[in-house]
Each structure stands twice: as structure tokens, then as C-alpha cells.
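Morning - TUI inputs below, output right after.
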Amino acid sequence: MNKVCEILGTEYPIIQGAMAWIAEGNLASAVSNGGGLGIIAAGGRDAEWLRAEIRRTRELTDKPFGVNIMLLAPNVDELMDVVCEEKVAVVTTGAGNPGKYIPKLKEAGIKVIPVVANVTLAIRVARAGADAIVAEGTEAGGHIGETTTMALVPQMVDAVDCPVIAAGGIADGRGIAAAYMLGADGVQIGTRFLVADECIVHPGYKGAILKAKDSSTVATGRSTGHPVRVIKNKLAKKILRLEAENADEEQINQLCTGTLAAAVRDGDADNGNIMSGQIAGLVKKEQPAAEIIEEMFKEAADVFASRKGII
Ligand code: TUI
């Protein structure tokens, strides 16, 4: 059996990406019911919301699902308490080193899968007891590192003993097959699930993903040391201009205030912060989450078969 399926308790070795203010019970349960691991994103939420959402998700699926905790959040300790009390199956983390929380999570019987963007941090979290690690390349949406998935995955596979799950730039069976070839045992996919029927993000956000082409994303925030990949719209261009002019961080932060809500809740494709991976150009239709998963893994198997004679 696939090592990642064994850890996650799923039919397919796929984790849904955590998308702040977007990934909640509807999408998480749909992905889990489709045989993957659905994720509730706790970033920006409070402990009460998270507890209620975990309980609501349990009513929508009897399959395992996980919670993502963004480590830059001011209420990380409280969110960690909630996932331990509720004994969710899996916790993924982002934007930092979850090392100090790992013993407590494992004591609660929770599998811990940090999402990391470089090998140094991967080695640290592996030593701290991570069950698996998501190697997230710079092609991914949201907060990103510098290294591509193609370069990051094999280097991480060589550096750690636990299974590696590839993320960033994967949205179909070819991407899954490629990740396996690099030594990954599973994939994390965000962008394609943005247009899942069960994803509650505003249709304007979905439209921006469906309209995107290969060159439609850009990383803002490089000047502040926190690059974030988004759709290159009016807002992103304004931020890039300010960064080029060495505007102070406060001014940029002010411009960004409320823009994630504008994208997620109001679907403002011009002035909203539309986080997306580079692979958005490949995402062309809205489908149920379960159909997305089944289609991608069938395609991965077909790709393996059709390329058999290549070497
Ligand atoms: O965390 C993510 N993706 C995210 S978090 C997020 S919310 C947010 N929004 C705006 C600004 C900041 C956060 C949206 N998307 N992926 C995992 C990830 N971790 N990507 C990059 C990193 C990372 C980068 C540098 C983690 C640690 C780090 O430096 C510390 C170290 O020890 O290397």
C-alpha cells in the first residue's frame, strides 16, 4: 500500500491544499468523501469557529480529514489546543517550524505533516517527529519559498527518511506522475480545488482561476521577505509598483488590508487578493471534488502506461 495513504487513512495519496477563508467543511468533506484528505484551513479563524467547523465536517463525512494551522497566526496555541481536544486525524502546518507543537499533537494521536519550502526546515521537522512532509515548490499559491517543485522534491526525498508529498504546480495526472518520478509518495493540490463545485469561494474568484494562463500569477511581497503568489491583477500590480519604489511596509500593508475578504467574499477580481498557483492556466472547468480526484489519478495511471517505452 502507498505509504501516504497508510498515514492519512485515505484511498488516494492526496491532500487538499489549505486556503485561508476558503477551505472549510464543505470542501474538506467533499475531498475526504472523494477518497483524498480534506483540509479545514484555520488561518485567520478563532478557536470557536475551528471547533464548530470540525464538528460540522464530522457530520458531512465519516472519512478522515485534517486541519491546517498557519504558524504566523497570533492564536496558534489556542488552535493547537482545539485540534488536540477534537482529535482530528491530521494536522498540516504552514509558514514556519511546528517543532515545539509536535510532541503534544502526537500524544493526541494526530499525524503531523508540515508544509515546508526548503530542505533545511524539512530536516528539522523530520527530526522533531513529522510523519510526512509536504515539499512545496515556488509554483504554489499563497506564501511561498524560492525553490521549484522540480528541484525541491528530489533534494528533500534524499534528505529525510519520512515520506515526501509534492506540492506546487500540480493540477492533473501528469503532475502527479511527475511527482512520483521525483520520489514523492503523494501530492498536495490547492489551485484545482478552488473551482470544485463544493468550494464556497465567490464565483468571481473561480472565474479568475478559470481565465488564467501560464503567466497570470506573480509573487508580491518579496521586498518584505514574505513572498505570496497571487493572480496578477490591478491590486498585485499596485503592490509591485510600491515595492519597486521602496515604499515602506506600512503603506503596502495598508493597501492589502481587507483584500483577501474582497476576493473570497465579494469576488473582486481587480482589487482582491486572489492567491493562486502557477498551474491555474491548466484549470479549465468546475467539477465535483470527487470527480477531480478520480480523473487525476486515472490520468496519472494512463500517463505511466503510455510513456512506458520512453527510456
Ligand atoms: O504557508 C504556506 N502557504 C500559505 S500561508 C498563507 S497565509 C499568509 N498570507 C500572507 C502572508 C503570509 C501568510 C498563504 N499561503 N505554505 C508553506 C510555506 N512555508 N511556504 C513558505 C514557507 C516558509 C518560508 C520560510 C516557511 C518558513 C520559512 O522560513 C523559516 C525557516 O525556518 O525556513
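Note: Residues 52 and 109 are 20 Å apart (CA to CA).

O.
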